[in-house]
Amino acid sequence: MSDAPAPPEAAGAVLDAAGYQALTQATPAQIADLTRFLEMLTEGNAVMNLVGPATIPDFWNRHAWDSAQLLQLAPQAKTWADLGAGAGFPGLVLAAMLKGAPGAKVHLVESMTKRCRFLAQVSKELDLPTEIHNVRAEDLSLTVDIVTARACAPMSRLLGYARPYLKRGAVGLFLKGQDVVSELQEAEKAWRFESELTVSRSDPRGRIVQVKGLSRV
Question: Which domain holds residue 130?
Fold first, then answer.
């Protein structure tokens, strides 16, 4: 388990596009796509609940970098499933960063139709390598390299949602907050699994949980 402090350039920083580019080595085209995504998110958030309005000014750290850091933990992964994709974090950011990579595909799994329409609108305008599934996460079974989620559910329930993907060989990379240890302890009452924690580089209070080998107790 890695529990080292987050890098000083990222910990708690309010990034702009240039700061994000420095952290991720994003291309100008990727920055342009994410800038347009921010514009669409701001417009969409005015008419539906996508993200907390107070988080939009910190888009580059709170949402974009928080999502993109997953690529550094799985640099070879090409196919992803984002469960409870919501406003597109991490899924749309991952898709923007993977755009143009051979074989890249991000499956956005979201049960709310309104949010699926937003995801489809952004994906179409930015020509992202996504596929949108307007279903409950546990009702879909896909073969992907990585299954991920952010702000979707407590670990015990999230593992149930992710089980079909993990059974098909995916590795779980889940973005969690500061209560992750208690969530894992609760999840261990119902599940057996291997887990490893990595400190979030966008917020040192957060953790990324890697999960393998899931089975029922």
Answer: 17-216
